[in-house]
Specification:
By secondary structure, this protein is an alpha+beta fold. It contains 18 helices and 18 strands. The strands form four sheets. Strands 9-8-13-12-11-10 form a six-stranded antiparallel beta sheet, sandwiched between helices. A hairpin with a 4-residue loop joins strand 8 and strand 9. Helix 3 packs antiparallel against helix 4, helix 15 crosses helix 17 and helix 16 crosses helix 17. The longest helix is centred in the N-terminal third of the chain and has 30 residues. It is elongated and about 115 Å long. It starts with a strand and ends with a helix.
Length: 516
């Protein structure tokens, strides 16, 4: 087995003096290591030779070989640049260097042997449990597999663990606890190994009593599961990391094979919904036909929801985790990832999206996961999905602009503000405020009175003096005085419905101006 020159340089903390034609040594394979002595006559181009700097004068170095030189005395680096020389600190001894490199060869042999075992297991149709059992034999540390929603799938070697409450919880309950799930999905820890731009393994510490290395089980860069290796019996080595990654690939293939049909169905329906949002499909008959083919048996009433993750990085893992969470909450598969957010096509039996208790649970779930949701108006045909997706998306943005409290923004409640704000490109919306509203607001600010608030409450209660006085917590006679005074100041005709509508609209414009 061979190891790369780059890996040798890395483990020795060495530095190369000559610009090797293949770059940093990543593509140069070394098959052996030996001491560079006077008795050694045949030098192999595939081996690396170790010597002290004080021994260089005894014989010339060949420029076709690779040398590791221990700087036990000052060296003429200009002269050494003619050779493929790697310099290491004087603290290293030749025996230690050779031992370290030979350990690399042993590790590489172990990785190669493990890859063959994993491949043979896959060829024999090994189950996920059998793959984890094989992994436990090779890695000698416990393994735990959870899906993207951090629910238990399988484990090996976990039954004998002590002093690790999070593992014990997962094995007994079937899922990780909320504290750990929140920590994992918001952790920005440094990653260890990359393949292109894809993170393959991540160290997890903090909530555990032992370190654990987590491998990502991916299918076309889509997370399927996480394979956790607990550093319980002995330290996790670099070769352990490589074996864990190979094991993740094998588990991914097995999971894709087992769940192939369901993944295809989900993928087709996801693709269909995304095509609707991209407006690549607009023919009504074609849409209805696809709905039938994909088995989307929906209730009559439809809503579009857009869920945004607030104040945290929208990692791919976190989006898939939340996708599963909201699929479980709504008991719907029509949850997709679109433009870095979650989009839900929610069908209901009634014209209410949810009852009051269910909406409170939904808001709690949003709060728990630091999300905000925009909800569209009701609609009845899939070909209107895109339009109502835009409503839900606008509800999120309008809620931000108007500083709306809470985690749920309904477009139904924001239609008029949306219409008003749409005029901003055409005119100064301040000009939309009716003179009566402007006059009463100026008077209230000057005198500290409440004429505008009184008028709005009076109109909203259909000019019912009893209900208005009760809502304002004032005496009936006080209300009558204020209304008469408003008429006297503004010459307002309370029988003119058009004027009353303009006053209500003006108050909304004024509220919007206070927010933007």
């Amino acid at each position: 087995m061979a190891v790369t020159l780059k890996k040798i340089i890395s483990v020795l903390n060495g530095r190369s003096l000559k610009m090797i034609s293949s770059g940093d040594g990543e593509n140069i394979e070394i098959k052996g290591v030996d001491y560079f002595t006077e008795q050694l006559t045949d030098l192999s181009p595939d081996e690396v030779y170790v010597l002290k700097g004080s021994e260089i004068y005894r014989r010339p170095l060949g420029n076709k070989n690779y040398f590791i030189i221990i700087e036990n005395e000052p060296l003429d680096e200009k002269q050494l640049r003619e050779n493929n020389a790697i310099l290491v600190d004087k603290e290293w001894e030749p025996e230690r260097v050779v031992r370290q490199i030979r350990q690399l060869f042993e590790d590489q042999y172990r990785v190669g042997d493990s890859s063959i075992k994993i491949l043979k297991a896959c060829q024999k149709g090994a189950t996920i449990q059998q793959l984890l059992d094989l992994g436990y034999q090779m890695l000698c540390n416990p393994l735990l597999l959870v899906d993207v929603s951090l629910c238990f799938i399988a484990h090996s070697g976990g039954n004998n663990i002590e002093n690790e409450p999070l593992w014990e919880w997962t094995l007994s309950k079937g899922y990780v606890n909320k504290e750990y799930a929140r920590s994992v999905m918001t952790d920005d820890s440094q990653t260890d190994m990359l393949e292109g731009d894809t993170v393959l393994v991540i160290w997890e510490t903090g909530l555990l009593n032992h370190r654990q290395l987590v491998g990502r089980v991916l299918d076309n860069n889509r997370p399927l599961a996480y394979l956790k290796l607990l550093e319980y019996h002995h330290p996790i080595s670099e070769s352990d990391k490589e074996i864990l990654i190979m094991l993740c690939h094998a588990v991914a293939m097995t999971m894709a094979h087992i769940n192939g049909s369901s993944h295809v169905a989900s993928s087709l329906s996801d693709t269909f919904l995304i095509a609707l949002l991209n407006q690549k499909m607009y023919d009504h008959r074609a849409i209805e036909e696809r709905e039938r083919i994909y088995g989307l048996k929906l209730y009559k009433n439809l809503f579009a929801l857009v869920i945004r993750i607030d104040n945290r990085q929208n990692t791919n893992d976190r989006l898939y985790y939340l996708k599963r969470i909201y699929q479980n909450f709504f008991n719907r598969q029509t949850v997709i990832i679109y433009n870095g957010q979650l989009v839900i096509l929610l069908d209901t039996m009634t014209e209410e999206i949810q009852n009051e208790r269910e909406m409170a649970s939904f808001e709690s779930l949003l709060e728990e996961n630091d999300c905000t949701a925009g909800i569209s108006k009701i609609f009845y045909h899939l070909y209107d999905f895109c339009e109502h997706y835009k409503q839900a998306h606008n509800a999120l943005n309008l809620g931000d602009q108007l500083k709306k409290p809470g985690r749920i923004r309904s477009y139904d409640e924001l239609i008029i503000p949306h219409m008003i704000l749409s005029f901003r490109g055409e005119t100064n919306i301040k000009n939309l405020i009716h003179p009566v509203v402007r006059a009463l607001k100026e008077l209230d600010e000057k005198k500290g009175s409440s004429f505008l608030k009184t008028l709005v409450a009076y109109i909203n209660h259909n000019q019912d003096t009893t209900l208005t006085a009760k809502s304002l917590h004032i005496h009936y006679n006080t209300l009558k005085y204020r209304i008469n005074r408003i008429i006297e100041i503004t010459d307002l005709d309370l029988s003119d419905s058009e004027t009353l509508f303009k006053i209500q609209l003006s108050v909304k414009v004024d509220d919007i101006l206070d927010c933007i």
